Amino acid sequence: MLTQPLIILDTHYQELNNDGGDVIQGLTKTPKSLPPKYFYDDRGSQLFEEICQLSEYYPTRTEAWILSQYANEIAQLTGSCELVELGSGSSTKTRLLLDAYQQNTDDCRYLPIDISGGILKSSVLQLQQQYPDFSIQGLLGTYEQALEHLRSNSLRSRLIFFLGSSIGNFTPQECDNFLGQIAHALKPGDYFLLGIDLQKPKEILEPAYNDSQGVTAAFNLNMLSHLNWRFQGNFNPNFFTHQAIYNQADAQIEMYLHCQENHLVSLDILNFKVSFQAGESILTEISRKFDLAIMQKQLAAQGLKTLQTWTDPRHWFGLILCQA
Ligand code: AVI
Confidence band (pLDDT; 50, 70, 90) for 206? Predict the structure, then answer.
């Protein structure tokens, strides 16, 4: 059954007059930082898809392996329910879950949520062709908007899933708030499936975020081009270089753009100017690496009880299925 491919939840985000307060706030702090959501314009989303194919970037492949082994078990544990994916991107790994639900249940409905309209629309159109028995509709907006929208539309049993360890891009405080919002969006008996990247040696982690082909560098630098487009800015990406380091104490990868030249940047739509000194850095992303048992405790603190966990033979990545 073909339905309208997208529901637009965030019309503001589409427009150039997005208020950009978070950009001003991040660039006036010392040290400077920028919110990772600005990675994901259409080019950034494409580059992220390329990162997922890199030999050094193990998370996507490892999580896909776990899903290939256990998606059927997940579908059998939850039974028939509406599938909601947060931050779906191109929905590649999702197909493993959709296949399993198609085999094990009837009345399938899939709602992918993303802030990048181009990639969301093309993946919904493709999935509608490939899964004609599914009702599929994309929700374009932020997680907060989507969870809010879902809360007011909750008749069926539901599985929300958040894969790829995207939760690792939240600070501990943001992570707690996010899990609280998830718990709030679920009815008793609904499910949450979470994919997390597990702690491992720096020798594996750092190459995954400093790949030899420079795709991660292009992804990081693209944030500046995105800000130029969105806020009529004049960032020169050639004045910056990419680096990712593993901060062992906080168990997180930190991605930086290091400034190479003293210069001034204007973001005209925000009526904002900021000076950069050679040698200073912008923190663009943290990617936290987790402990499976600690994450289960954090979920339990929000009323989300673990039903089952799965991992790969090297224990590099984990999936947790929990119930509200
Ligand atoms: C989306 N997120 C889980 C990725 C990560 O690994 O933290 C984003 C990424 N940044 C650089 N490479 C991948």
Answer: very high
| DSSP 8-state code for residue 5 | S
Residue nearest ligand 1's atom 4 by CA: 166
Query: What are the backbone dihedrals phi and psi of residue 310, each rounded to the nearest 5 degrees, phi first?
Result: -135, 150
CA of 72 to the centre of ligand 1 (A): 27
Spell out which residues line ligand 1, taking CB within 6 angstroms: 51, 59, 164-166, 168-169, 209, 216, 285, 287
Q: How confident is the model at residue 202 (pLDDT cuts 50, 70, 90)?
A: very high
- Strand runs labelled E in the chain: 6-8, 32-33, 82-86, 109-114, 135-136, 138-140, 158-162, 191-197, 240-247, 252-259, 263-267, 272-276, 281-288, 305-311, 317-323
The helix/strand/coil state of 7 is: strand
Contact 51, 255 (CB under 8 A): no
CA distances from 104 to 24, 62, 72, 259 (A): 49, 24, 7, 53
| DSSP letter assigned to residue 290 | B
Residue 98 pLDDT exceeds 80: yes
Q: Could you give the CA distance from residue 324 to residue 320 in angstroms, rounded to a whole number?
A: 13
User: What is the C-alpha to C-alpha distance for residues 291 and 123, in angstroms, rounded to an integer?
Assistant: 32
- The interface predicted TM-score (ipTM) is 0.99
